[in-house]
Amino acid sequence: MQLRPEQLGAHLSKGALKPVYTLHGDEALLAQEAGDALRAAARAQGFSERQVHTVSGAHFDWSSLLGAASEMSLFGDRQFIEIRIPSGKPGKDGSQALQRYCEQAAGNDGVITLVTLPRLDKAQQTSAWFTALDAVGATLRCDPIERRELPLWIAQRLKAQGQEVEPGEAGQRTLAFFADRVEGNLLAAHQEIIKLGLLHPPGVLTLDQIDAAVVDVARFEVFKLTEAVLSGNVVRTLRMLDGLQAEGEAAVLVHFALASDIQGLYHARLALDAGKPLPMVLREQRIWGPRERLYERILPRARTLALARLVAAASTVDGIVKGLPHPQWPADAWEALRRLALQFAETASAD
Asked: Residue 274 in 3-state DSSP?
C-alpha cells in the first residue's frame, strides 16, 4: 500500500494500523514528521513498549530482530519496533530475514513495525525484501519538495497555523518570494513558517512582513541547475549559480553538470538528424524524469550548429575551471560558468 506523506494523517485517523510502515526518501523533515505521527498513533493504541534496531554493517544480528518480534512483552504491553537501515542495503541475509519478518508481522497484532530507509533506487524498490514490506503494510516515500510545489506546500503550512497570504496575484508573488528564500532546505522552511506564527497573529501576511522575518536559507543541488537552464529560466539560473558559489560548491562539478546536458542535447540532435525517432533517441541517451520533458521540448526546434557552438564553449570553460584562461572568456571560473549557462539557457529557449 502506497501512501503520500500528506495522506498519512487521514489514514491514521481511521484507527486500523498496518503491521508494518516503511519510510524511505531524502527529505528528513517529512520522514521525521511521519515517524512522529506513527509513534503517537501507536502509543494511543497501546503499543507502548518500544525497541529500536539499527542495521549497521554486515554483521547485524538479524536473528535477534526476528526473536524480538515473536516474543511477548514482559509487561503485557504491545510493542512498537523500529528497524533503521541507513545504507538502504540489508544484504542477502537481511533480505531473507526481512521477508521472514514480514511473514511473522502479518499474523501478529501485538507488534507494529516502522522501517526507515534512505532514498532507494529502482532496483531496491523492486527487490524481494522491499516488496514484502510494502505487501504487508504501508509505504511512504518522503522525497524533497520540488521548487514548483513549494509555494503550495508553504501555503498549506501557513493555513494549518491560521495564516495566509494576500489573495490573487499579490499572494502568488509572496509565496514565490518565500519559496526562493527556502528552496532546498525544507527543515529551515518549516522553522521559518513556525517563526511567522510566533511573530504575527492569525490572519493575512503581507510580503513586507515575510520579507522582514524570513531568512534566506536556500540551498541548491548542482544537478538541479541544469533543469533551470533547460527551462530557459535565466533569473533562476543566475540565482542558483550565486547560491552554489556561496555554498562553496566546486566549479568543476558545476561545469560537469552543464557540459553533460550540452553534450547530451548535441548527440541527441545528431541522432535526430540521422533519422532516429525522438523516443528512441531519449532512451539511448538515458534521458528520463523531468529532463525528458525538457529535452522533448527543446530538441525538435534546436539547431545542430547552435548546439555545436555550445559544445565548443563548454570545452573552453572546462579549461578555465581547471586554470587554463582563454583570451575571449572571463578568467574567473564562476564568471565563465555564468556566461556558459546564459548561452545554454538562450539556446534552450530559442524558438
From this structure: coil
CA 188 to CA 190: how far, in whole Å? 5
Q: Which residue has the cell 491560521?
A: 162
Buried b / exposed e along 290-306 (16+ C-beta atoms within 10 A): ebeebbeebbeebeeee
Nearest to 314 by CA among 326, 300, 297: 326
User: What are the cell numbers at 164?
Assistant: 495566509
User: Please, which pLDDT band fits residue 78 given cuts at 50, 70 and 90?
Assistant: confident
Distances in Å between the Cα of 113 and the Cα atoms of 19, 35, 52, 333 are: 6, 11, 10, 51
pLDDT the model gives residue 66:
81
Which residues, 6 or more positions from 76, have their beta carbon under 8 angstroms from its beta carbon? none
- 76 pLDDT more than 80: no
Burial of 265 (0-12, 13-18, 19+ CB in 10 A): buried
Per DSSP, the residues of 167-216 read: SHHHHHHHHHHHHHHHTT-HHHHHHHHHHHHHHS-SEEEPHHHHHHH---
How buried is residue 316: exposed, middle or buried, by Cβ count under 10 Å (0-12/13-18/19+)?
A: middle
Domains defined along the chain, listed by start = 2-141 (3.40.50.300), 147-213 (1.10.8.60), 222-349 (1.20.272.10)
C-alpha dihedral over 179, 182, 187, 192, to 10 degrees?
-90
Alpha-carbon span 35 to 41, nearest angstrom: 10
β-bridge mates for residue 300, sequence order: none
Tally Cβ neighbours within 10 Å of residue 278. 14
What distance in Å separates the CA atoms of residue 48 and residue 42, rounded to the nearest whole number?
7
199-202's contacts with Cβ under 8 Å and 24+ in sequence apart are 200/163, 202/161, 202/162, 202/163
